[in-house]
Design goal:
The protein is of the alpha+beta class. It is built from ten helices and six strands. The protein is 45% helix and 7% strand. About 8% of the residues have low confidence.
Length: 337
């Protein structure tokens, strides 16, 4: 069975699907003959029309019978007049293509070669089957919008916290080593050195986290790695993408939601548009990744398997942390007796 991949109208990669599924998408007008597709054995992405015969997507009409032109009648020249140029009868006009029923494409139909060349030039055989990513500037209004609920956002936050925590730990260790080495050359680290390492590490950690959220939320995906995994994204209240500065500032508004005993986070489970406190401050929404696109019907209201798995893992880690704290307190109390 051949596995096909195709780029949808947003130029996002979809697949794999088999021949029958690809043919059905063509019948449903979900893909067209200009849709770029790829399968094993192809060096580049190619338009679907190149495989129309292989997939039996179109039918070529029989060669039209062209009637012979009527014989040319030689004009009669008058003796006293200048000769005139004979006029040849016009050839019959070609038959017009039918405007109803199933479309039948002519073999000589132009293929917009310039556009095809421009599209194919952006692909490399070493990156297949990755599809080109379209700009996120086109916002489709009027469709249904599925807002991301509290638990989807918690699952995404768990993933992002792990990513930022690992990156911050590595950078913090590097900074601590550099500063520690500097103080070591001057006779020892001391209290001042420890405070300097802690201060610099905290500042770098905050800037790293804010840049992570700001850059990813302003990217084409409009989502951090955690949100991409869960299938949600961040937009303005009107569906438009947010800027880097808004995403950068949204991180500090997120801190405000945390210092309010996490009430700012819990608000996402009760407000009309599932907005947390930092969303209201920054005029943002967290929605399904297919909201405000050409395919709002692809949005999902259910949590999804990955979301449930992440929540379970996060819950177990939280219980483990609480257990360790209780154990440490108990050990300290027993040693103090």
């Amino acid at each position: 069975m051949t596995n096909w991949y195709y780029a949808d109208r947003l130029r996002q990669q979809q697949g794999p699907i088999d021949d029958a599924q690809l043919a059905r998408l063509f019948q449903e007008n979900a893909v067209t003959l200009d849709t770029l597709v790829w399968r094993d054995g192809l060096a580049n992405w190619q338009p679907l029309r190149d495989f129309a015969g292989e997939l039996a997507l179109v039918e070529l009409p029989p060669t039209p019978v062209v009637s012979a032109a009527p014989p040319v009648v030689e004009p009669v020249l008058a003796a006293t007049q200048d000769p005139e140029v004979p006029v040849q009868a016009a050839a019959p006009a070609p038959e017009e293509a039918p405007t109803t029923g199933r479309a039948v494409f002519q073999a000589q139909e132009p293929r917009h070669q310039a556009q095809r060349d421009a599209d194919l030039a952006s692909y490399s055989p070493y990156t297949a089957p990755a599809a080109a990513v379209a700009s996120h500037s086109s916002v489709v209004q009027g469709g249904e919008v599925v807002y991301a609920g509290f638990w989807k956002r918690v699952a995404a936050y768990i993933i992002d916290s792990f990513v930022v925590g690992v990156a911050g730990g590595i950078i913090g260790a590097i900074i601590g080593g550099i500063i520690g080495a500097g103080f070591g050359l001057n006779g020892g680290l001391g209290t001042g050195g420890m405070l300097a390492i802690q201060a610099v590490t905290n500042i770098v950690s905050i800037c790293l986290s804010a840049s992570y959220y700001g850059w990813f939320h302003a990217s084409n995906h409009q989502a951090t790695l955690g949100k991409m995994a869960i299938g949600i994204k961040v937009v303005r209240s009107n569906g438009e993408p947010i800027s880097f500065l808004r995403g950068f500032g949204r991180y500090f508004a997120l801190i405000i939601s945390g210092i309010t005993l996490c009430i700012g986070f819990i608000m996402a489970g009760f407000t009309e548009r599932k907005q947390a406190l930092h969303d209201m401050i920054c005029d943002t929404l967290v929605v399904d990744k297919w909201a405000y696109t050409d395919h709002p019907e692809w949005q999902k209201r259910e949590l999804g398997t990955l979301t449930v798995v992440i929540l379970v893992i996060g819950g177990l880690l939280a219980l483990l942390g609480i257990g360790l704290i209780v154990f440490a307190v108990g050990m300290a109390a027993s040693m103090g007796r």
